[in-house]
Specification:
3-stranded antiparallel β-sheet; 48% helix; elongated; alpha/beta; 4-stranded mixed β-sheet
Amino acid sequence: MAVMTERDALLRAVLDDPADDTVRLAFADWCDENGDPDRAEFVRVQVAAARADPADPATGRLLRRARELEMRARDAGGWRDDLVRLVPRGRSEFRRGFVEVLECRGEEWVAHARDVLAAHPVREVTLTTAPHLPHRVWPVLRDELRLYAFDVAGRTVLLSEDDVGEEGATLAILRRRWDGVVFRLGTKEAGGEAAPEEPLDDLDRERAERRAQMLADDEGG
C-alpha cells in the first residue's frame, strides 16, 4: 500500500472540499517549504484575485501576475502535464490555484475521469463531443417507476425519464455519475460537429420493452 505523503494529504483535502480556500493556502505553504515558491505564489495570488473586487485595479495586477507564473510554469513543464497526457486535445483553466475547468472530448472524459479527478478539483467540464455511453438499457420496474440502467465508467447509473428533462439523456447520465461536476455539451470541435443527443426513449427501445415485459411477467407469476 502506497504511503500518503504530506503533499498527497493536502491535495486530498483540496479535492474533498474544493470550496475551502484554507486547504488551498495550506497547500501553498507546503509548496513554499518544499522548494516550489512559484506554485505557492500562484495559489495565493489566484485565491486573492478570486476574493477581490473585480473593479479594483489591484485585482488586475493579481491576475496578470498569476498569468506570468502560469506561463513560466508551462515553459518548465507545467502543473498540468498529466492532463496533457490524458486529454491531449483538451483545454483547462486554473481557478484559485488548481485546475477547475476542463474542455475535452466526451470519450476522453469517460475514459480518464477517474485519473483527472484524483489529481485536480475539476468542477466544470465542457465536452466537445457527446460520449458514447455503453449501456445495457432496459427498464427496471421499481414502485411502478421505470428506471433505465446505464453502465458508465465502472458504475451503474439509474435514471428515470423524469430525471432527464430538457437537458437530454447524456447530460443527465453524466451528472448522476459524477455528482458535483457541472457538465456542458459544446456545439463543435476542430474536425467535426458534436454528436447529437439521444432521447432516453430511443435508446434500445425494443430491447427495453421486451425486458420490461419479462420483469412484469415475473412479478405477476
